[in-house]
Amino acid sequence: MRPFSTRATAPTAAERVRSILAAAHSMTVVSDGIHTEVRRLDGAGAMGHFHLHAPFEDTEAQTTTRVPVRLELTDVAPTPVRDRVRARVKVTGVLAAPYDAEAAQSTCMEFGQAVLEDAQGRTYITLHALEATELDPIATSEAGMLTHLVDDHSEVVPLLLRLVRPHPDSGMLRALPVAMDRYGVTLRLEYPRTHHDVRLPFKTPVTDIDQVGPQIHALLTTARRLSHTGHLLT
Whole-model pTM? Predict the structure, then answer.
């Protein structure tokens, strides 16, 4: 009997939130009734602009000025798929002073909670879960890698489609990669009135960005083998 496998094949909610925070190029900061669009995060993501920390426990700190703040981020697919918004993230907390968009240094934010909203629903993430999660090594390079795949290697997607089970039917209009993470590639299959996503897991999760190429080639090798043998994936 084959032993039961617990190997993860998709990122957890905490992993997704951390990736979105790290890869963000812009966000909206809502504080003291004012919405501020922060559009240049200089490649450092949201956490290069805000430093999250646990709530203060001493009484004196709790009696000082506390300004509620909310960070709003939208995770948009880098490829021209239908319905490009993949997820929305909101991080709430408090500041010790009114938010200053011109501040050169990182702003300290007392963490309240993070909320991930996607096609699966709404998930709440604690600071402990975020801090215990390693950053996906693909997170900040995903957009460039996916656009390179679509623009310069269009022959790859038809090959990857051979791995999809059950096979897409003849009504499919097109397929494009919509996401990539340390666990695999996600294709979006678009039909006239609907679409759905299919994950193609890597053999093993990526631990370094240099491992992505070999993992993609391994998927393509399997796809080519299937096309010659006609065998189904098991």
Answer: 0.89
- Return the SS3 of 221: helix
∠ CA 77-116-186, rounded to 5°? 35
φ/ψ (deg, to 5) at 99: -65, 135
For residue 28, the 8-state DSSP code is E
Instruction: Check residue 39 and give its pLDDT.
Output: 86
Q: Residue 159: which residues within 8 A CB-CB, separation 6 or more?
A: 220, 223, 224
Are the beta carbons of 177 and 185 closer than 8 angstroms? yes
CA distances from 199 to 25, 100, 167, 219 (A): 25, 41, 13, 12
Spell out where the chain has E strands.
27-31, 34-38, 50-53, 67-76, 85-95, 107-118, 121-125, 174-181, 184-190, 195-201
pLDDT in tens, 192-230: 999 999 999 999 999 999 999 999 999 999 999 986 665
Name the nearest CA neighbour of 91 among 75, 107, 114: 114
The mean predicted confidence, pLDDT, of the chain is 90
Q: Is 232 left (phi over 0), alpha (psi -120 to 50) or beta?
A: beta
pLDDT < 70: residue spans in the chain: 1-6, 57-64, 104, 227-234
